[in-house]
Amino acid sequence: MMQITDSYNQKNSLFNAMNRFIGAVNNMDQTVMVPNLLRDVPLDDSEELKVPEASTTPSTNGSVYFQQDGDMYTSYILLKSIRNDIEWGVLQGDERPEEKVEVKEVKQAEAEDDLEKQFHFHLNGLHGVLSKLTLKANTLTNRYKEEIGCRN
Asked: Burial, 141: exposed, middle or buried (Cβ in 10 Å; 0-12, 13-18, 19+)?
């Protein structure tokens, strides 16, 4: 009985979501032989890829990852960049603004109040973003195949 529960939970784990995303981007990377063919080809206008307006507020930085007016080449480069960040890590402090020491201390005190709640909030958010990115990589791969006339 324990193994059945474990396999169900593993299906929804963050690790598996990351593996699905990395696999989709690797498949995209292997399929797209000439990335320059993606330039100036608009993204599919299907509702599946659009992010709700609430997610594109400056506070969530959603607009950085899901630009509606980009082309397929921009998405291709973005997805590969995110995959590399997941696989190799991000540079710490690269683009982070410096804050005053007092502000850091206040935020740190607030953060320690309910760590479990914050953890679950961010875990759910990351899982959702990875699912959307995986869908975007799969859609880009399929659109590329349509553009070059490959039915497989």
From this structure: buried
42: three-class secondary structure by DSSP = strand
- Look at residue 152 and tell me whether its pLDDT is greater than 80: no
Task: Express each pLDDT in 38-84 by its tens digit.
Answer: 998 887 655 344 443 333 333 334 434 445 557 899 999 999 999 99
Q: Which of 144, 37, 140 is nearest to 82 (CA)?
A: 140
Nearest to residue 38, comparing CAs of 149, 134, 141? 141
CA distance 49 to 43: 9
**Structural contact between residues 24 and 137, judged by C-beta atoms closer than 8 angstroms:** yes
d(CA 34, CA 20): 23
The position carrying tokens 């590399």 is 84
For residue 60, what are the CA distances in angstroms to 66, 72, 76, 134?
Answer: 12, 23, 22, 19
Residue 49 phi, psi (nearest 5): -90, -15
SS3 content of the chain, % helix, strand, coil (to 5): 65, 0, 30
Residue 149: its pLDDT value, please? Answer: 82
pLDDT of 20 over the 90 cut? yes
